[in-house]
Amino acid sequence: MNLQHTSTKLPSVSxxxxxxxxxxxxxxxxxxxxxxxxVHDVAGRQGAKLLQTAEALLDALAPIEVYWAxxxxxxxxxxxxxxxxxxxxxxxxxxxRVARALTSGAYRRRTIPIGSDEIDNExxxxxxxxxxxxxxxxxxxxxxxxxxxxxxxxxxFLRNNLYRVRRAEDPFIYxxxxxxxxxxxxxxxxxxxxxxxxxxxPGLVLKSKNVLPIIQQYLDRxxxxxxxxxxxxxxxxxxxxxxxxxxxxxxxxxxxxxxSAEDIAGMDLGRCRRVFYNQEDFLELHLNILRGxxxxxxxxxxxxxxxxxxxxxxxxxxxxxxxxxxISRSHWIQDMGAFYGPxxxxxxxxxxxxxxxxxxxxxxxxxxxxxMAARAFGSKQTFFATNGTSTCxxxxxxxxxxxxxxxxxDRDCHKSHHYGMVLAGANVVYMDxxxxxxxxxxxxxxxxxxxxxxxxxxxxxxxxxxxMVLLTNCTFDGLVYNVERVMEExxxxxKDLVFLWDEAWFAFARFSPMYRQRTAMSVANTLRTRxxxxxxxxxxxxxxxxxKDADEETLLNTRLVPPPDARIRVYxxxxxxxxxxxxxxxxxIHVNDMDFKGEVEQAFHEAYMTHTSTSPxxxxxxxxxxxxxxxxxxxxxxxQRQVESAMAIRRAVTSHPLLQKxxxxxxxxxxxxxxxxxxxxxxxxxxxxxxxxxxxxxxxxEFVLDPTRVTLGIxxxxxxxxxxxxxxxxxxxxxxxNKTSRNTVLFMTNIGTTRSSVAYLIEVLxxxxxxxxxxxxxxxxxxxxxxxxxxxxxxxxxxxxxxxxRFHDAFRSGTDTPEGDVRTAFFLAxxxxxxxxxxxxxxxxxxxxxxxxxxxxxxxxxxxPGFPILVPGQVISPEILSFMRALDVSEIHGYRPDxxxxxxxxxxxxxxxxxxx
Length: 917
Ligand SMILES: Cc1ncc(COP(=O)(O)O)c(C=O)c1O
Known about the structure:
Elements lengths: L18 H21 L5 H21 L6 H13 L3 H17 L27 H6 L3 E7 L4 H13 L8 E7 L2 H10 L3 E6 L12 H14 L9 H12 L4 E5 L4 H5 L6 E5 L5 H16 L2 H11 L14 H4 L5 H7 L2 H4 L18 H13 L3 E5 L2 H13 L5 E5 L4 H10 L2 E5 L3 E2 L4 E2 L4 H13 L6 E7 L6 E3 L1 H11 L4 E5 L10 H4 L3 H13 L1 H13 L5 H6 L11 E6 L1 H4 L7 E7 L2 H16 L6 H38 L1 H6 L1 E2 L2 H4 L13 E2 L3 E2 L2 H7 L2 E3 L3 E5 L7 H13 L5 E2 L3 E5 L6 H23 L3 H15 L24 E2 H7 L6 E4 L3 H8 L11 E3 L14 H9 L4 E3 L7 E4 L1 H11 L1
Parallel strand pairs: 1-2, 1-3, 3-4, 4-5, 7-8, 7-11, 11-13, 13-14
Antiparallel strand pairs: 6-15, 8-23, 9-10, 12-19, 14-15, 16-20, 17-18, 20-22, 21-22, 24-27, 25-26
Helix pairs in contact: 1-2, 1-4, 2-3, 7-9, 12-27, 16-27, 17-18, 17-26, 18-34, 19-20, 27-32
Pyridoxal-5'-phosphate binds next to helix 17.
């Protein structure tokens, strides 16, 4: 059944971004309808209408409910019967109980009595409002999807057998959901985030009888890519396991088969945990299901730390705060103890105290926790860091770059990379991202630019010195690369390139199939498989023939294929604390490098030692361990909800007439030029067509916009980004945001964002817009003119963003290619005699315009945008100077207005020239 045609009265499916939200809304609509029916005679006109709506809602819920254990098919049928019998009173009681249990999560903790003859005195408190201690004592709940085309009798047999093997000591409780086909299995895991394990039985069929338009887009694409429709029935089971791993790799799949073991042995079963040949060994299956979930639930370091904190210990160590002793004995800092509670101090410890593992040389629970994180994030090795991705970036750069190596970097990358380049002595080629002048922000580096740079270095005979391509994925503003395409094409030019993807903002991306395909670790694994495949070699051979004498333009216009002997060498750094549950500064380095063990491990160890504190904070490490558990068990659900929240903001601002007057959500078409949007899709949501096909965007386009980051153009309000952030959002409404530009503010949703916080934000924006309306209604002509001028100043007269100019010749090893020795420039400035200062005045502009060459001696980093517009050794162009002069931000790091712009003296530069000659 197609939901779109269910009833004209219900909101259409295109009004919904997510199936989960659609489900929740339909249950609450059903509850309201049932309650209204209580007061309207169903024989009357109004009552008949309500009756129709209730029927339509039940029809619309029917294809959704088959994928959930609660309330389950049985209860659902009961509700239908009550409606048919016009037993409105009982219907209303039952629907209310179901709807409340669904919103509160009560069904996870206890059996919900549905019938009106059953008493239900228990609370329906929202799970999140219960005391954490109570929740920690309960057994976590999940659902197991069983894929088998069974009749009613067989279904009962399956259920009863699984209930029979439950034991009081089981650490978790689960309910089965039984669906008949491979397609249903995929819809089930895409839709039902409670599913933690899937049992694929031999009786499954291929096709579903259901159509869920919201999920169908993805399903169709997946099936098309995998040629599912051409499968033989005997292949359905193994294929189901493989596809489950593609969609939600964290899940445990169990294949029950009657095919021979030899037959199964050679097949790709994704991450299938076990193959069973005996269909009826339910206890064995039950124990495996629990063990599988427990494998993800385990938190070796957090558990060890909890155990440690229970031990009585005398502290003769340089850690007076340990066990809270310095606080409990104090007369003056009791409030600290009261605020934090005792556990945080009981758990304060150090590697040298003994008993727990050491971050610098992990062999015990920290090592185990890191290995589990590697599994969760798809890396070969994962390393924890307790001082943020700033440090992770420096570690990776130092481990891989030798002095003189050439590194291609996006210039608007985080400052930690620039400092990393200085420390490592890299020769840096800064690549420009496409600019978004109207919003004073940069996009990302087009692949064409990256290939052009590599080909230029190749032509100059310097390709052997090129070591790394370093890019930010995704950017602060939410631009995401086509990681697969970038790595493939770069490897086609240089087959052993190392990639460092700064995923500071992207740790959550692994846990949604849409995002995952654009993450470094997932692509590294895909490329490993592809390179091993014979068809990869064939494709490369064919292309080599075609491109034998190709010129640069042809190479730039061709999608290049990597050679079969390319090395996959990929690193990703993630600020776990930015997007997942972790204490501040908790970050991870993920490694997927074929040459790590052979070539890098020792250097990596040294780099790790260089940058890691010998007193790392163990609470941060424990939080990384727990954060990993969370995403392996509920990352899919949380990310889905996060996207839903962001989409709700997009939709509200786009469709609210008052908000449209002053605000504008920046759509993909406003943030990504058309040449990088092959799908041609302009917005995630528009009023006429509803939600656009996000899968299309995410598979095709060179750049996509992370929908969880909503950039709002606020130029129309007459306030600049900074004022709007501080004076309006923060001071008046207590709303915190992170980034602004001249005429935009960025709202980031996260896995903790709730529907009510989204509603509050919209409320605030509406209030601000109303106030502006009133202000302008009463404004004098002069005031109106002044407002219009302010708006024009913010929206139209925006200083153009300058490109990277070039390194001064003194820092280059030849002028045919752009790389520069930023380290020499950086340290040259340590001697004040080498530096001079100039005011940012008209005289300076005149000097530059008349051809004088001035070279920056410092990093100049305005906030926002937060990346250097000048680096040491860079020639100051007139455009950069104009930009600096037009900047009206309060913070410009590296620039002191009382002294002026710090540049190298001619003597210093000449001295350097002489030395290098
Ligand atoms: C792209 C990027 N990389 C790295 C970092 C540094 O991360 P951390 O704050 O974890 O040190 C940031 C911080 O904002 C960032 O935006």
